[in-house]
Design brief:
Structural class: alpha+beta
CATH architecture: 3-Layer(aba) Sandwich
Distance between the termini: 37 Å
Number of domains: 1
Order of helices and strands: EHHEEEHEHEHHE
Strand order of the largest sheet: 1-2-3-4-5-7-6
CATH class: Alpha Beta
Length: 167
């Protein structure tokens, strides 16, 4: 069952992100890795910035989650994670489809360039990598992330949604 996460889910959201993000350890640049991957204060800052989390609940347990953020004329998919034990069951795809149906304007997602599995996941679900020039423009326009993260990230755009008018 997909449901909107509530304030009471905060500790679980933080735990799911930090468990699933272990996949990045040793893959993304070492200077971008943190333990925990996302602190509670960083998670709260994302929520305060407008990231709305939705989760896949299975037998009362939040097995996966994904955020959606509306930024001017685009919709961003943010922080997509599935518990390790629940991966490979279609939870990420179900969450992505659910949130894509709620998108307005262009639907974009950013991920680490080294996270080949994440890039393949989004491509299987109708996204395409944008050019390096577009990536730089989109990250500057729609994300608030550190420069080093921008340098080591990619952006994918949904092929089912239009492109931003200024790009």
């Amino acid at each position: 069952m997909i449901r909107r996460c509530t304030d009471s889910d905060f500790p679980t959201i933080e735990a799911v992100i930090n468990e699933a993000a272990q996949a990045y350890h040793g893959v993304i640049p070492a200077d971008c890795w943190h333990n925990p991957y996302m602190t509670g204060s960083a998670l709260q800052a994302e929520i305060d910035a407008g990231v709305e989390f939705w989760g896949w609940e299975d037998s009362g347990i939040l097995a996966g989650l994904m955020g959606i953020q509306y930024v001017r004329d685009v919709t961003l998919i943010r922080h997509a994670y599935v518990r390790t034990a629940s991966q490979g069951r279609g939870i990420g795809g179900a969450l992505l489809g659910f949130l894509a149906d709620r998108a307005s304007g262009t639907l974009l997602v950013g991920t680490w360039a080294a996270a080949a599995w994440a890039i393949r996941f989004y491509e299987r679900h109708g996204f395409r990598l944008v050019s390096p020039r577009e990536k730089d423009e989109l990250l500057a326009a729609y994300w608030s992330i550190p420069l080093r993260q921008k340098e080591t990230s990619v952006v994918l755009a949904s092929t089912r949604h239009s492109r931003p008018s200024e790009i």
